[in-house]
Predict the structure.
Amino acid sequence: MAKIQFFGAAQTVTGSCHMLTIGNRRFLLDAGQFQGPWEIEKLNYGKFGFMPSNVQGLILSHGHLDHCGRIPLLKKRGFDKEIYCTPPTADIAMLILMDSAHILKEEFVWKQRRLTRAGIKVKEPLYSIEDVYYCLNLFRRGVPYNRKIAIAPDVNLTFHLNDAGHILGSAQIVLEYREKRGETRKILFTGDLGDGNRPTVDDPAPPEKDIDALIMESTYGDRDHKSYEASVEELEEAITSTIKRRGTVLIPTFALERTQEMLYHIGNMKRSGKLSKRIPVFLNSPLAINITRIYEKHCDYCHMFKSGRFDRRHSPFEFPGLFFTETVEESKAIHGVTGPKIVLAGSGMMTGGRIKHHLKHLLWKDSTTLIIVGFQAQGTLGRRIIEGADQVRIFGEPVAVRARVYTINGFSAHADRTNLLAYAKKARPKKLFIVHGEPDAQKMLAKSLQKALPATETHVPRLGQHYPV
């Protein structure tokens, strides 16, 4: 009998990490960082709950930090086996991890400078850039969609990856193994499921049939998104009305997927004449710039390239008036450019990165428009703003919130409640484990699923909890 144990994303959104044990073989599904307020992030500094040296392999669903962000820590503590993932995920994960190591080092230096004088000992960074380099040889081969890979012949364990439609190269993970009695059992891990109808990625593949256990994300398990078409219209209206006022549009974007989607839509506005080609658009994120180049490198995984509308010579992510600002000096120079202008910068939840500098300069001006197009976790600056704060603290200073704030949730790369329910009903698993969601979202989704699938054993696991599968 196999078992699944949950070491992350259990009754919380981040830190995805689940272990499948068959006999004496152990395989991880993801190894992500916990993100959010300190009571969540401090989990990164604790023990994994298992011996990394005893893990025979890691299957990575995609390259977001909350799914890959503890790989260097896993390596430091003894893991030295193969990481299985799609080719785009391997490239993206290394960029994300390098950026994470850089941020961890910067935060450590800043805290050390401020807190050591007060007699407070500062924790060392989770890992260094060198630690990330040591992980390179763990990504030994890219695994394309639908190719079966035998990873433990002695226990007849194989897996394959299906498109999750979430970001470039994201995958659903399907594991099959044969029990001693000869019965074949099948486990499906959704990773993060996309919502479909997106220009950058294909729609999620339907779930496999005859599923014994389904491990499913639940980020938006308690609500539906606004339609994608309506969200694009709202984005365009927010941009054009701000440009008419000669103001500044600030878009906090996640470097991966949301940035490329925003570039596509802003480019479309310029190509169609809705936006003047002279309006400057600044992509102020070295990480987002590099990931955009990965989208072009792996264009065979990218929907908009496969559709035939674009090619390597005519990228959907490039258009007149677009400036890639990579250096600190270029970033600072944006403040001297008078409006109208559009600035895309990370981080997506406004917890760090260059967007905070723009917010400090512009959030208090009523000529500014702040367009929020991504999930804002509890405890983040972005969450405080969308909940209506009149004033926030940025770099220790109070800043009034006078900008016009648009929250457009239809751009989410996560499936909404309706699509999650439809997916689970198609899979009809014998057991269902709900992960990667805030408690209220998970409870509501679990209640709906118990009603829709009364024959399915539904669980919302706690951290460390394990179940037979």
